[in-house]
Design brief:
- The structure is a single chain.
- This protein has about 950 residues and is an all-alpha fold.
- The protein has 56 helices and no strands.
- α8 packs antiparallel against α9, α22 packs antiparallel against α23 and α23 packs antiparallel against α24.
- It is elongated.
């Protein structure tokens, strides 16, 4: 910053001098008088350059007039011609013009040019012989020069002198104002400018400073009125016009602001400040072409304005000039990284270009800096959602909603995000809040409430919410999918298919309808259709987790359709080689099929490298290890750890690779370093003690476990290490004692359950139950402990007690699919379908089984629901479920013969006797004991006899 720019030039003009000048000009005659009149007319019209020219003509016609030369000096200062101003001010004084007023003009010229040192040298401190008015002007001028040179104490003395010598003049008080501004003393500044205006209420410099103070206090209208007094005296005052135009712009009075800007540019066509304000007005009016032309005139000077690059970026974006817009936005954000406006603009460009990761990084910096607003956080949520980071998206929307608690749209988005993240209870809470804020959102929010009810398996409530959504909402994609899912859970595959197909007819690209249709097809045993539909899903949404998970499970199952499913998955991956989720799934399947080279080829492919995260690098390490390429495996593992230094799975993998090549000490050191930053991490602790056990034996491992248990920062995970090591050695008695001792010191559900498991291994179920009950006495509503107690009750034949406990579990944890399934099984076992009471109990069991199957689809839940349907006489609905359960069981190493017995029973009831015989024959032929063996043998004999 130059010295000249450090202070504003101050207009020094006394009321007496101005009056004398006016009187003398009125007495002038001839050509000089005509030129003066034209000059004054030009000033009134805002033509300052024309006024200067006319005053030059007047001086030429009357060269000995000090008054006219002073007028020319003043006009020259108005247009920034300081050389002429200085020369004419000296000439005016020499020709008898008021010495104080002329001195003030001369000093203005010095100050405007930044000639502070020259001013102090040529105008020394006034002596007592100098007239007080002149001395006061000199002292005021010296004060301004000293302020410009950062000589604040000298300036303070000069201001005191100026005010003492000439309190009746404006300039000493303006100097006092400038000093107060440097001191950041607003009260003193206000007092000084008010004194100046009390002396001369029309003084332009004093009015400008008064307006600045008013604007700083956000007194916009008073500031505009003050500036109006300047403009009425001096229509061509560019600074006043631009400042008033800016204030009008901030108040939204764009038409009045435009008038001031246009007037300023007529006076000073090259004023970049006025041009910038014009560009802002054009931008707000969405005259982007005009704004672009104005900004082009400003050129490189745009960077001198705090928001210049921001305006340039917005303009170029609106005109579709993407590269230039991004360049300006990135430069702005680099300069002002905490400005939320720039972050939002740049992030919107990145999101539009598919660079969600870049958008998230920009917005996250603003969020961490504490300057984020609700809109930027909502954008951050969209960026996270685009990358599949549902948890981060929810967190961003929660913060946005806190900043804008009355924003119904934000609440609605939060509800949807929470639903996607599986937080059904919180999703329902946000949906209710959105409806309270805006009734128009009710149809959409009712659908989220229906989905929340579905997620906890409450089909009746889900159906009721869809009804409440209204007819229009029920025709939407979401409602159609929910309705189809309800039919699906109720084992109405045909009804579900009909609804999903109706959704696809209206919404051909619907992912959720295809997924629902795939579930219906699976229930109907149409494996080829399932495979096709899941492939279609991945063609449209390559990162869809459900489709990937189901295809992966099918490819890993080893069933008759495994190869076809695998090909679908690999084809989807080949079509989208940059998608990390598909690459991971394909690699997992190939590794399971002992094709590590193909897995490595996918993971190390060039298109994927930019998207490769620690998880994929760890898989690559696994593939290289399977190929026995140990150095490459270690390299990939180290790359994963470099990318995520606190990734405990990467640390465990690398330690295993180091151990394999005999560097056990290096492996141990790696784990110890990991524990310095994450001392309570259970994975690192367990890996370390396992490594020590392998290297130096059980006693050394137990000693390490004890050291970790004694370290407060390593708890609570470390408290179970000793017991876990002993359990691994089948030393159950000692393990139970270790868990018990740890529990006494720090009671927890984890330790209670571990102790119970050790006691069960010792065949002491009553002691195990006592251990769990001890914990439940502290935490009576713990559903996990209650569920384990129910399992003990079942094993001991205490079915009524088990049922009681399971009912309590599902009441406390309605989303516990396993407990729902177990309770349904218990209830059906004690139901007699031949009695009304038994039928009612079986119907209740069916509702529980439906919820359990929806929440936790597995061989066991398919078997439970299918068996209940079969016992209820609904064999056609039961068959697909029973087949599904048997298929999963067959793919396992340990087949459950009871499932095949129930499938055969259902087939026989459905009239499929030949298939029933083929199913039951291999089961009976084995020597495996199962509860239904006698019934299965009898059934087989009857089937062979044609019954």
């Amino acid at each position: 910053m130059t010295q000249a720019s450090r202070i504003r030039p101050v207009r020094f003009r006394s009321l007496l001098a101005a009056t004398a000048l006016a009187a003398s000009l009125l007495l002038a005659s001839g050509p000089a008088f005509a030129s003066v009149e034209r000059a004054r007319a030009a000033q009134q019209q805002g033509d300052l350059r024309g006024a200067q020219i006319e005053y030059r003509n007047a001086v030429r016609d009357n060269p000995d007039s000090g008054e006219i030369r002073a007028a020319l000096a003043r006009a020259s200062l108005d247009v920034g011609d300081t050389d002429t101003a200085e020369k004419e001010a000296r000439a005016a004084i020499d020709r008898g013009y008021d010495r104080a007023a002329g001195t003030a003009l001369l000093m203005r010229a010095y100050l405007a040019r930044g000639r502070f040192q020259d001013l102090l040298r040529e105008f020394p401190e006034p002596d007592a012989q100098m007239p007080p008015a002149v001395a006061g002007e000199i002292a005021a001028g010296r004060a301004m020069a000293q302020i410009g040179m950062d000589r604040k104490e000298d300036a303070r003395a000069s201001v005191a002198t100026a005010v003492r010598l000439a309190p009746q003049l404006v300039e000493p008080h303006l100097a006092a104002f400038a000093l107060a501004v440097v001191d950041r003393d607003r009260a003193a500044a206000e007092a000084a400018v008010d004194k100046a205006l009390a002396i001369d209420g029309d003084n332009i410099e004093a009015l400008m400073r008064k307006a600045a103070l008013q604007a700083d206090r956000r007194e916009m209208r008073p500031a505009i009125e003050t500036l109006g007094k300047v403009v009425s005296q001096m229509p061509g005052n560019v600074q006043a016009r631009v400042r008033r135009g800016e204030l009008l712009f901030r108040l939204g009075d764009d038409a009045a602001a435009k008038q001031d800007v246009d007037a300023a540019l007529r006076t000073a066509p090259g004023s970049t400040v006025a041009m910038y304000l014009r560009a802002m007005l054009q931008g707000r009016a969405r005259d982007w072409q005009g704004a672009d032309e104005t900004l082009t005139r400003i050129g490189a000077n745009i960077t001198n304005f705090p928001d210049g690059l921001l305006l340039l970026a917005a303009t170029k974006q609106a005109l579709g000039q993407t590269a230039q817009a991004e360049d300006a936005a990135r430069r702005y954000v680099a300069r002002r990284p905490d400005d939320v406006r720039g972050a939002k603009l740049l992030a919107s460009m990145d999101l539009a270009a598919g660079r969600a990761d870049d958008a998230a990084a920009t917005l996250d910096r603003v969020a961490r800096g504490g300057t984020a607003d609700a809109e930027s956080l909502e954008m951050l949520a969209r960026a996270h959602a685009a990358m599949g980071r549902t948890g981060a998206a929810v967190a961003a929307l929660e913060k946005a909603s806190e900043l804008a608690p009355d924003n119904a749209a934000l609440k609605a988005r939060l509800a949807a995000a929470r639903m996607s993240a599986g937080e059904s209870a919180k999703a329902a809470e946000a949906a209710e809040a959105a409806m309270r804020l805006d009734k128009a959102l009710e149809p959409a929010m009712r659908q989220i409430l229906a989905a929340a009810a579905m997620s906890r398996g409450d089909l009746a409530e889900a159906s009721a919410e869809l009804e409440r959504a209204g007819p229009a909402a029920r025709d939407s994609e979401v409602a159609g999918v929910l309705d189809g899912t309800i039919h699906l859970v109720r084992v109405d595959a045909a009804g579900a298919r009909q609804r999903f197909e109706a959704v696809l007819a209206k919404h051909p690209d619907s992912i959720h309808a295809r997924l629902g249709l795939a579930r219906a097809a699976a229930m109907q045993g149409k494996a080829d259709e399932v495979n096709t539909l899941l492939g279609e899903v991945l063609a449209r949404a390559p990162a869809n987790q459900e489709a990937i998970a189901r295809l992966t499970a099918g490819a890993l199952s080893g069933g008759p359709r495994g190869d076809a499913v695998r090909e679908t998955l690999l084809k989807a991956q080949a079509a989208k080689p940059t998608e990390p989720a598909l690459a991971r799934a394909a690699a997992v399947v190939l590794l399971a099929h002992r094709e590590p080279a193909k897995a490595a080829e996918i993971l190390d492919a060039e298109p994927l490298k930019a998207q490769r995260n620690a998880t994929l690098l760890m898989l690559l390490a696994e593939a290289r290890a399977a190929e026995e390429k140990w150095s490459e495996a270690e390299e990939a593992s180290r790359a994963a750890l470099a990318q995520e230094p606190e990734n405990v799975m990467a640390q465990r993998q690398l330690s295993a690779l180091l151990t394999r090549r005999g560097e056990k000490r290096a492996a141990e050191d790696l784990l110890q370093r990991g524990l310095t930053t994450q001392p309570g991490n259970a994975v690192l602790q367990q890996t370390l003690v396992d490594l020590i056990k392998q290297d130096r034996g059980l006693d050394a491992a137990l000693a390490q476990a004890d050291r970790l248990a004694a370290t407060p920062r390593a708890r609570p995970a470390s408290l179970s290490l000793r017991g876990d090591l002993l359990m691994g050695e089948k030393r159950f008695e000692e393990a139970a004692q270790a868990f018990g001792a740890a529990y006494e010191g720090a009671p927890s559900r984890d330790l209670a359950m571990r102790r119970a498991n050790a006691l069960l291994a010792l065949r002491k179920p009553d002691d195990a139950a006592a251990a769990l009950n001890e914990w439940l006495a502290k935490q009576p509503d713990d559903p996990v402990a209650e569920a384990q107690l129910a399992q003990i009750d079942l094993a001991q034949g205490r079915t009524e007690e088990a049922e009681r406990r399971l009912k309590q579990v599902v009441a406390t944890a309605p989303g516990d699919g396993v407990s729902l399934n177990n309770l349904a099984w218990l209830m059906q076992e004690s139901s007699d379908p031949s009695t009304p009471a038994g039928q009612a109990r079986l119907a209740e069991a069916r509702l529980l089984a439906e919820r359990g199957y929806y929440l936790n689809p597995s061989a066991e839940s398919s078997d439970t629901l299918g068996w209940i349907l079969a016992r209820s006489g609904k064999v056609q609905e039961a068959l697909p479920l029973m087949r599904q359960a048997a298929a999963v069981s067959a793919a396992r190493r340990r087949i459950d013969p009871s499932i095949f017995y129930r499938l055969a029973y259902t087939l026989r009831a459905a009239g499929e006797k030949e298939e029933a015989r083929k199913v039951i024959e291999p089961v009976v032929a084995t020597d495996v004991a199962f509860p239904e063996r006698e019934a299965a043998t009898k059934m087989l004999n009857e089937l062979r006899a044609g019954g």
